[in-house]
Design brief:
heterodimer; A: mainly alpha; B: 5 helices; 35% helix
Amino acid sequence: MTGWFFAAVPAERTRAVRLLVFGYAAAWLLIRSLYVLDTADLPDRRFEGVGMWAGFDTPVPLAVVVVLLVVALGSCVLAAAGRAEPITAPLGAATALAVITYTNSWGQVFHTEHLLVLHLLVLGAATALGTAPREGWPLRLMSILTVIAYMLAGWAKLDIGGTDWLSGDVLRNQVAFDNLRKILLGDIHSPIGGRLVGIGWLWAPVGLVTVIVELGAPVALLGGRLRTAWVGAVWIFHFCVLATMAILFPYPLSGIAFVSMFAAERVVERLTRLVASGRSAIRRSRTGPSPRPAPR
Amino acid sequence: MFVRRPLVILFSLLMVVAAVWPATTSPPRDSFPLSNYPMFATDRPTEASFATVVAVAPEGTTDRLTPRAIGGTDQVIQAAATVAQAVRNGEAEQLCREILDRVDGPTQLEVVTETYDTIEWFDGNETPISRTVHATCEGAS
């Protein structure tokens, strides 16, 4: 077991995972910065601190959150780029945790960001502990945490929903409730989900498959085709959640939530080649076709 | 530079225990960044109540407000929680006024709780089973 956990990986793989995960975190923080600014206008009574903010009765001054956000953004960008990692990776992980926890402290816990933060903490801690890029344990630990998250989600469905979950009723009622709530509160909803709630027989097999995929997460640690099949199944699950409830889980849907399970360096190589060929195409379109040599 | 293995094992075990811990408490904990991930697990009754705020046109028809108008952010669950909290705490009137000050256009708002059969709604039955008005507020027209 420890042999597998500590087995070496190509150094490029660790760098690729760090690039993708910290890069995603930077993009996410940038997009969420609007929401952080929104919270400044909310009444103090709406603040319900969670996690590291649980001891706070009132929100902190916006300036504090903005400073944390700027530091988190800058650190994540630098960590993604592989600059001063012993400082930027742990700092990026810690400040991202602070900012993202703060955004979860306004009456709603967003389950879209738990795995991202756990992955950042592993990468940040690994760098702080002086882990060499060839050491595989950070990637293995990230994969284990991913597996645990999905297993817990599957267990929660059975624990809370019981056998009604397997009959499909819980899932069907959830889809109906969520879509109607969005309609009544003027938000984007899923017309597909609205139509499908009328098909009663559909939900039992969907519920069963969902729980099997989530509880079956440990197969991903076996690698190979089982890992790929499981990741594919989870991606389809998240796509269906988007299609039927208009709920976006961007971290898994982007695929980055699972890069620790794969040869991430090949993903980065392909993306690099794609960007390079795109740049060549743009350059060619600007300069026009190369002149033909004059006939002798 | 290689890390001492026991330290890594300790850190890894701590992370794993922390990740699993929310599911082992009674009741399970849903927080951040540790959670039991109870998404979609709650058994919702088909007959469900929704607290919301609507704009009332002069002719009596109602228009739905957006989450941003209701809650100040684009998050629908937060908007729903805002209204539910206000109704629960007897602050519906205050919320009504806050929203009226925030939105352009509507001059009359209602804070309401509407109960629907959620399955039948998508079958075309959009009439609420019940409707309770908690507060009404009007601004200058």
